[in-house]
Amino acid sequence: MSAPFMSLYRCCQRSALLVVSRRSLSSVSPPSSVSPPSSVSPPSSVSPPSSVSPPPLHTRFLLYLTQCFYDVEMLQSWTFLQRWKRIQKRNTYYGYTQKNYGSDIAAAYYILSLKGGLRFVGQSEWFIADRRGKFNWAFLDHKDTPLEEVNMNYTDINYRGLDNLEEQKSLRTLSLRGCPEVNDWFLARLHMFEDSLEELDISHCPRITTGGLAALRNLKGLKRLDVSSLPGISSPGVVIILLEEMLPKCDVTANGYDHTLREES
Q1: Where is the composition biased (Low complexity) (predicted)?
Q2: Is the Cβ–Cβ distance between 178 and 154 less than 8 Å?
Q3: b/e burial code for range 160-195 (CB count within 10 A of at least 16 → b)
Q4: H or E element that contains 147
Q5: Domain of 180?
Q6: Are residues 75 and 116 in the same domain?
């Protein structure tokens, strides 16, 4: 039996035990097999024991939640672990594909497997996976043709997955808009594209911080950079000014911030 069903089973079992214990407290009676002698009567001064009233409803509810807390916490931890394993597996190194089809086909297959899109050098056609993850296998006809543009918007690409793109020395455009796993470690590895990358979109990535943006100084050939709506950025006005000084030939787009400090400067 899997962990989530075990947790649900224990919660239901504890709920049943609470109901049984409440009933046992509300009605306490001696065993039916034992009866007092008929000739002996209890003293008139001794009154029968009063029934024990159950605790209030909100108290029983809080007790139930307390007992279920650790099961819920375990279920959340299990869910997080399974999601982490799934992301790591999807970003594994496609060594077998690279060995048999070359680094360009391996990179394309990795991108499409994550529901991304790509365009080869000298080609106008884009290969894009649909919402169900299906794509056109005609990309196999472009063996030994490097990638020029890659769109990984809203995918689960992480820093490990960059191993599959390391040989793409002709990559000019990389779009990573809204990628939840793109973080500072990811930006630090983008130096592998320092001689080719011209356009980079890292907008709406929740795990990027101010410190990670400093790694972009290695991309000297960058012409367009989109850093819009990064919630992990503190003092965005100052950061944007520093980016423009660090990359003087780059057009920096930064929407979704308060640019008061930038205007004053």
Answers
A1: 27-50
A2: yes
A3: bbbbbbebbebbbbbbbbbbebbbbebbebbebbee
A4: strand 147-151
A5: 98-264
A6: no
pLDDT in tens, 215-224: 999 999 999 9
pTM given for the model: 0.71
**Domain-embedded: residue 79:** yes
- Check if the beta carbon of residue 170 is closer than 8 Å to that of residue 195: no
Cα–Cα distance measured from residue 172 to residue 147, given in angstroms and rounded to the nearest whole number: 8
Rounded Cα distance between 65 and 68, Å, is 5
Asked if pLDDT for residue 126 goes beyond 80, the answer is yes
In the prediction, which pLDDT does 34 show? 47
Gap between the Cα atoms of 244 and 233, Å rounded: 16
What CATH code is carried by the domain that includes residue 183?
3.80.10.10
Report pLDDT digits (tens) over 68-113.
777 777 777 888 889 889 999 999 999 999 999 999 999 999 999 9
Please report, as a single letter, which amino acid is at residue 92.
T
Same domain, 109 and 83: no
Domain assignment of residue 206, yes or no: yes
